[in-house]
Amino acid sequence: MSPSAAAERAAPLTDLLSIEDLDADQVNAILDTTELLLPIAQRERNSVPTLRGKVVCNLFLEDSTRTRISFDLAAKRMSAEVINFSAKGSSVSKGESFKDTALTLDAMGVDCVVVRSGSSGAPLQLSSYLDVPILNAGDGWHQHPTQALLDVFTMRRHLGDLAGRHVVLVGDILHSRVARSEVQALRLLGARVTMVAPPTLLPPAVEGWGVEVARELDAVLPEADVVYLLRVQRERMLGAFFPSSREYARVWGMDARRLSLCKPDVLIMHPGPMNRGVEITGDVADSEQAVITEQVTNGIAVRMACLYLLLAGGTAAGTDTEVGA
Ligand code: NCD
After folding, report:
1. Least enclosed by CB within 10 Å: which of 15, 87, 101, 180?
2. Same domain, 287 and 150
3. How sure is the predictor about 283, in pLDDT bands with cuts at 50, 70 and 90?
4. Residues 176, 242: one domain?
């Protein structure tokens, strides 16, 4: 298989901190590389030796299950060594001690750091301490670039070119790093985005996001190609942003009645972990239109592609030969 035109044109990646740092060619190069690596993520083909001898450090300073496991699997399927560094209960998330952690990793000779932190900007800070590629696995309210990439990859597999496609983003946009990354990736690919959220959970400067905002979910559902439900981020809420979970589900939740208002082939997506009965009812989460488990599998392939592009120093051009080796 020959490399895609986007992969040949794209500037090489040095870090993956934010979707904002990427252009459309780089996003398409990641998506095209992901396509080549998907059979390995789906276990149709065995692991490949591409990253043998490389050491990937997963530095998780905030709770995570699926993202950490996904990065772990992605690195291992490409034969990298993985060290897991979780700093639960320690004080490494700020200032000098964070710098010391970085210097320790540097002294250990890691080749790449995958970092998750509750503090927005921590991956950028880390990249100023270390010369190795830094991959942002979610920082505060700010960015979660691999989530956005796996989401647009999943959409592209079902819908083809996303230009002109309509994505309805529902829920807690204010606290959501997924929403920030997602909107930037979708806009780069030419998709139209409409947000529907409790007014208290819309970001203050939403006009600058380049999206439409709708008041009523029912009114926009018939035109949606994708309905993307965001988790209610209770851990980031200091007060009451809506009256109750029941009220939230009634006004902003996706249920069978709302699914019936959508096109029959609409895609229902959620980044996980889901609050069943709040953002989404169990029957919609388990419906044929839901691609939530597919997002998880695609997440491994996207993370393989990002690690490959950052560590094997390549464009997607080299992937096929090495994967086939
Ligand atoms: C997302 C996150 O952590 O931002 N989840 C994840 O990566 N598994 C979305 C969320 O927690 O709502």
Report:
1. 87
2. yes
3. very high
4. yes
> Could you tell me the CATH number of the domain that includes residue 234?
3.40.50.1370
Same domain for 47 and 164? Answer: no
Instruction: Select from 246, 248, 166 the least CA-distant residue to 200.
Output: 248
108 and 119 within one domain: yes
**pLDDT at position 277 over 80:** yes
* pTM, two decimal places: 0.94
Q: Of ligand 1's atoms, which has the minimum distance to the CA of residue 65?
A: 8
Residue of 178, 182, 302 with the most ligand 1 atoms within 8 Å of its CB, for mutation: 178
| Statement to judge: residues 277 and 167 lie in one domain | yes
pLDDT in tens, 112-167: 999 999 999 999 999 999 999 999 999 999 999 999 999 999 999 999 999 999 99
Instruction: Give the model confidence (pLDDT) of 309-321 as tens digits.
Output: 999 965 444 444 4
Q: pLDDT for 93-102, tens place per residue?
A: 555 688 888 8
- What is the rounded average pLDDT of the residues 71-85? 95
Ligand 1 center from residue 320 Cα (angstroms)? 31
Residues 197 and 87 in one domain: no
Burial of 71 (0-12, 13-18, 19+ CB in 10 A): buried
Contacts of 143 (CB under 8 A, 6+ apart): 17, 18, 19, 20, 120, 136, 177, 180, 181
Please tell me whether residues 56 and 153 are part of one structural domain: no
What range does the domain containing 15 cover?
Answer: 3-142+297-323
Question: Does residue 277 have its Cβ closer than 6 Å to ligand 1?
Answer: no
- Residues linked to residue 85 through DSSP beta bridges, in sequence order: 59
Pair 295, 274: CB distance under 8 Å: no
- 200 and 269, same domain (yes or no): yes
Residue 70: CB within 6 Å of ligand 1? no
| Number of domains the chain is built from | 2
Distances (CA, A) of 21 to 15, 138, 302: 9, 15, 17
If one counts every other C-beta atom within 10 angstroms of the C-beta of residue 268, the result is: 22
Q: Is the model's pLDDT at 324 over the cut of 50? A: no
Catalytic residues: 66-67, 94, 116, 144
